[in-house]
Amino acid sequence: MANTMTQTHTIPLYPETTPASLLLVILDLHPLSWSILASAAPPPLPADATHKAPNTSLSLTEFINILVVFLNAHLAVRWGNQVVVYGASAGTSKLLYPTPPKDSEGSKPKPNMYAPFVRLDKTFESSLRGMFEEEQERLEGQQGKGLNDPPAIVSALTKALSYINRVAPHSPSSALTQPTNSDLELPNSSGADKLETRIMVINATPGSSSAETSETEGPKPPTRQSGGQRGGYVGMMNCVFAAQKAKVPIDVLTLPPTWTGSRPPIFLQQASHLTEGVYWRWNGRGGLLQYLHVCFDHLFYQVKTDTGSVDVSRTSIPPIHSVCCSSTRRGRLSCCLLLPP
Amino acid sequence: MADNDPDWSPPPDETLNPDADDDDINESSSRPQANGKGKQKDGALKAWEDSYSKSWELIEEDADGRISGVKELIARGRRKRAMMSETPLRRSIIRHIFIILDLSETMLDKDFRPTRWEVTLGYLRTYVSEWFDQNPLGQMGIILLRDRLSETLVPMGGNPQEIIQALSDKRKLEPSGEPSLQNGLQMARGGMAHLPSTSSLETLTIFSSISTSDPDGSSTIHTTLSDLVNQKVRCTIISLSGEIKICRQICERTGGRFGVAIDEEHLRELMWETIPPPAQTIAAPMTLGVRNALAAGGQGAAGGKKPPPAGDLMVMGFPIRLAQGGETLCACHGLLKRGGYLCPRCGSKMCDVPTDCEVCGLMVVSSPHLARSFWFLFPVANYGAVTIEEAREERNLPLTCTGCDRRFISLEQAEENLARSIEQNIKIDQSMSQTERYRCAKCQNDFCMDCDLYVHHTLHTCPGCCQ
Q1: Which of the residues A77, A93, A293, B239 could staple to A88 if both were Cys, CB 3.0 to 4.6 A apart?
Q2: Is residue A110 a part of any domain in this protein?
Q3: For chain A, how many structural domains are there in total?
Q4: pTM of the predicted model, to two decimals?
Q5: Phi, psi (degrees; rounded to nearest 5) at B35
Q6: CB within 8 Å of chain B, chain A residues 188-247
């Protein structure tokens, strides 16, 4: 760590202008998972942890608020940053943002708001509502049969990868014709104009419940390990390999905290491990937005530390994060691993 | 050789080039010219006499900004895929391959630009990574042929980085002397002698010379050939110069393929053909012992008579990954290293998977490696082209591609395009859709052309079917 710190003064480790970044968010919108998340009664903190934020439940509205701020932050960091959001509900997935412009909704430009923010806020909300209505109709039409289907994360992942393939094609043909030294990969060759892509999966569905006795009333949550799910393991692994090939990391935020007694989603863990993405499980306490910024928006952090204008340690994040995040860009992973449980 | 190619005729005026090397003329006159691919040079100019063709000036864009030649290529790929039967085929997933490289002086010939060797080396580097991508459980070694000797550049191993590293050091790879095909094949055979017959043994030879100078003695290349046949080593040879009888004979008798590379692109095609796992040729009884043992072991004291499971079975182990702790000795190199994997059977430590355990010989793989081969087991169905008539009958046609959410062209526009291409006498390709829609037969979702390619070549999962 110290070594890289000293080097930064002499040789810049990464290009001065970070490339524009495309963030593809896959949001689990399974109605059952969210109802469990919102209704779960959080256990009180132990007596010796009074200085910590209390355990809280999380409703979808609260989380969407947080997510929109997070996405706006991503848009604001650098001109040219883009955001794509997919929703994955029981058995189907859908592109939520950006949607093709339907008809010129008499959009009054808001003079006091950054235009991309306006666009995101408006479209995201309306398409989210649209998807909920569709889902309600669909599930009512099936008499709640499809409700136990697992969320179509795999389907959303395939769509996200196809989207990346269209927007920022990773061309193997150029690599084939030019005999280049693959071990001598130049950091500048990828260029500042090349779009940096990441996929972020926000999972709300708990893995199989580890404690069957503490089962909550009502329908069982859809489990990821259940056999016979469509596009399960094989589909997930195929996505992982395609992402590896395109050098797209898959970040995973899994929301059901440990105190719900659920197991972590194993496939998603494996996906983020294999693609060198960030995996983080929400600890069930407050400050989720801050954690999101620290763990997942590395670009945001990097700009802050590059200019040196913001003292990271002054924010209320425990100092251990700031050390990792400010020292190297590669500290991303370690930052996530070092989070206190 | 010329007989194979009906369109080929000997160049009429070979005297045009008095200072050209005699060798070159003889050699290349045994090679067919590239024709039928739009590469026919005017007159009798040979590849090395031609002025540098500015290929970038030939590119034409169509109305959508798509490069026009690309469409034909894509159409060809589609046809090729459609021709591949979807009948189930038993493939060898565990492959062992030796790449035998001719490193004789002929490799310095300049008919492939800049030289044959440079072109081969460039392709080889991507070939290695692509090969390991599709055959994660495979192992590869490299043998060089020069000065009538054969030397092992990289011993059989499963680490693509190691091989690419070895190939990137050009100083060690100076072509010289003459090759000996026999020595190379012998060495490959020896290197694979200890391997079990359950894995597919292969060699890929890239042969540039038109002769082989083999050692004197009682053992000739024909005895080597019968040894190879006995050991079921599949030999594939790609010749860079011309067809050589012994090469063809070797390939035919061992069940491999022989090809003569016409130009750089063709060389690449020939090499890439060997990447997908070959159809299984190993007889099922090979693993009958294992299956019987499994059937017997499964029943224990119950003593019920269960038939052995159908199909071949292999013993494999999933290792335990060690956390990054202190340094311990590994069994494979005998070095102190952090991390690593523990063999589930004997508990010895190895540096990397997939590999065979040094101590007990168990094949150790990790589940992602195995999963990489799954797309052969669960292939994506071919997408059919949606014609204008079909699209017109459809009531609610989806507006966007299911994969990438790109907007499809409207039907009116499709008709317009069709009318224009009829006007310009452009041949209409049946495998290409005029509406630019390709429909999955299973889930009935429409996809654009890019997604069709991406799903079938890279992703191997249909975005619609997994919903």
Answers
A1: A93
A2: no
A3: 1
A4: 0.73
A5: -135, 170
A6: 230-231, 233-235, 237-242, 245-246
